[in-house]
Amino acid sequence: MTTRSQIIDHTLLNPAATDRDITRLCEEAIEYGFFSVCVNPYWVARASELTHGSAVKVCTVIGFPLGANTTATKVAETIDAVRNGADEVDMVINIGRALAGDWDAVESDIRAVVEAAGENTLVKVILETCLLTDDQIVEACRRAVAAGADYVKTSTGFSRGGAQPHAVSLMRETVGPQIGVKAAGGIRTLEDFDAMVDAGASRIGTSAGISFTQEG
Question: What's the number of domains the chain is made of?
Fold first, then answer.
């Protein structure tokens, strides 16, 4: 049986994070058996060093948090992250192109990151669901799958809203059982956590993971 800790990406994306903070994050992830640590790109090499020899993966973010970087920039970030030891990358879609209905551009942007990541690095695609309609969420999921992504993800946690069970359920329904769904953004209580899992999330991104292992 999968425990709560085994589906948590223990997350610290605060731009003011220090080496001490990253060290604590990695130590906690190892102690509590979290699936990964999720850190900003600068900290990937350090996190990889700190988690070496453990089962904890290193995840980072690409085109974060706006998604408005050029594709070439996202590709360069991805290549650099993988070189520094990232096992997973969470990329933000080009939200402006999605809102404009230019889905070919959205898909092309995702595919370029997937190709840059290579076969051994898992790619999650952040939709920023609070900015999209249900129809746009569905199409974004379809395009992520078509581009070869491994996961779709709700949110950056830096926009006007975070994960909602409705969006998670819609994403799961769209991508089916073979693609992962990550809920992230504003998941601070055990009730939030369980609601996301019940809606279909297979991974949870949160900074409150320790409290979830100590409850229930």
Answer: 1
